[in-house]
Design a protein that fits this description.
Rossmann fold; globular; alpha/beta; 15 helices; 43% helix; binds 2-acetamido-2-deoxy-beta-D-glucopyranose; 8 strands; 2 domains
Length: 400
């Protein structure tokens, strides 16, 4: 055991040294600093998580969660907590779901009601939490004078789909129904999230659009959202699947942890072999690939899937919002989509924006030619991320 541990340690050290020197694309924002640093952090964390599982210390997703959260925590300690000044921050429960509520002091004192925003953090449904996104959600609340509810939904793989989705719906409904308690105008509530949080925001928006008796959401604002699991060979997956800031390898793991916690199907998914010829020629494939002209409309109940647990779920819009039919997109609230060039998920967001436009939904699409996945979280650190944050806030200010 000691020899094995020592060998693994040496191998890990060599790997880490090697990974420290990964090239980043020329055009990416902050290539020498942030893009590179974030890529290194992700890559090193991913490998430590795997090595840990191999050594019998926790599972890969648990380890990834611990490592990433520890790293973010150090960053937050260095930052201090002054960014929360002017806010009342409360951890509480909304209909059994853990949430953190940010109330600007100005909003509590305001004689008229203020807008509200429900926010879902990113992290592949597996890692990160309301703490890791605390600076972002606090900033949004403060800058907009808006009450922000950050949802601490249950994580996979301990809780596979639909746990995170169910929590997201429950917390949003509760806020819509109890907005007055927070001096919030229930007709001025929006929903937002980044990455897997963008997935949850889009899924909740689709479902609430069909619910009667609730005020309509004012907007959905989707930041680098992850929206489909039927095609891992879109142009952005092909172009950027190896980028350390978010690899195709990690994305497929996240989807599987969320779907069924069975990573034995990883190679099958990566090769797009988890869908048969029926799906590959169907309207669902067309939802992802704008160049497909001759699609054959298939009914879900007639599709033959390979033998993979829960596989039919990949066509469920609550799991993968890009699988929503055109009729489901009609009448959705005005939508904001942020995408980045250097992101495997670029085409997920671009396609959703295009399909919503075609369905006559009002769409604001900000695409960052030099941006990369999750760069918005660094809004305080460098220019492009700061500009992206300003544009996001300007949109919310106008719409809410
Ligand atoms: C994917 O399917 C192709 C064609 O059926 C096959 O040649 C290939 O080995 C499969 N790959 C994986 C990883 O399943």
């Amino acid at each position: 055991m000691a020899v094995k541990a020592a060998l693994v340690f040496v191998a890990a050290a060599v790997l880490l040294a090697y990974y420290c020197d990964q090239p980043v694309p020329e055009g990416i924002a902050e290539p020498r600093m942030y893009a590179k640093a974030q890529g290194m952090v992700f890559r090193i964390s991913a490998n430590l998580a795997r090595i840990g599982e191999y050594l019998g210390v926790g599972t890969e997703p648990q380890n990834l969660r611990s490592v990433m959260e520890a790293i973010v925590k150090v960053g937050l300690m260095l930052k201090g907590s002054s960014y929360r000044e002017g806010l009342k921050v409360t951890d509480t429960m909304f209909d059994g779901v853990k949430v953190r509520v940010y109330e600007p002091v100005s909003a509590a004192q305001s004689s008229s009601k203020v807008p509200g925003l429900v926010y879902f953090h990113g992290g592949g449904w597996v890692i990160l939490n309301v703490d890791t996104h605390d600076p972002l959600t606090a900033h949004v609340a403060k800058q907009l004078g808006t009450v922000v509810v950050s949802v601490d939904y249950r994580l996979a793989p301990e809780h596979v789909f639909p746990a995170a989705f169910d929590d997201s719906v429950a917390a949003t409904k509760f806020f819509l129904q109890n907005a007055e308690k927070y001096n919030v105008d229930r007709t001025r509530i929006g929903i937002s999230g980044d990455s897997a949080g963008g997935n949850l925001a889009a899924a909740v928006t689709l479902v609430l659009a069909k619910e009667k008796g609730l005020p309509k959401l004012k907007t959905q604002a989707l930041i680098n959202p992850i929206l489909q699991a039927i095609n891992f060979e879109t142009p952005s997956y092909i172009a950027h699947g190896h980028l350390n800031t978010l690899t195709k390898d990690k994305i497929v793991s996240f989807w599987l942890w969320y779907l069924n916690n069975d990573l034995s199907f990883k190679k099958v998914f990566e090769a797009n072999n988890h869908t048969g010829v029926q799906i590959k020629k169907s309207q669902y494939a067309g939802y992802v690939d704008p160049k497909m002209v001759d699609v054959t409309t298939v009914k879900k109940e007639n599709i033959k899937f390979p033998e993979i647990p829960n596989i039919a779920t990949i066509l469920d819009p609550r799991f993968a919002p890009l699988m929503a039919d055109d009729a489901d997109l009609k009448g959705l609230p005005p939508t904001y989509v942020m995408t980045c060039e250097y992101d495997v998920l670029r085409d997920d967001g671009v396609m959703y924006a295009r399909r919503l436009e075609k369905a006559r939904v009002e769409v604001n699409h900000d695409h960052y030619e030099h941006g990369f996945h999750a760069f918005l979280n660094s809004f305080d650190d460098y220019e492009l991320a700061g500009i992206a944050m300003q544009n996001y806030l300007a949109y919310l200010k106008k719409i809410l």
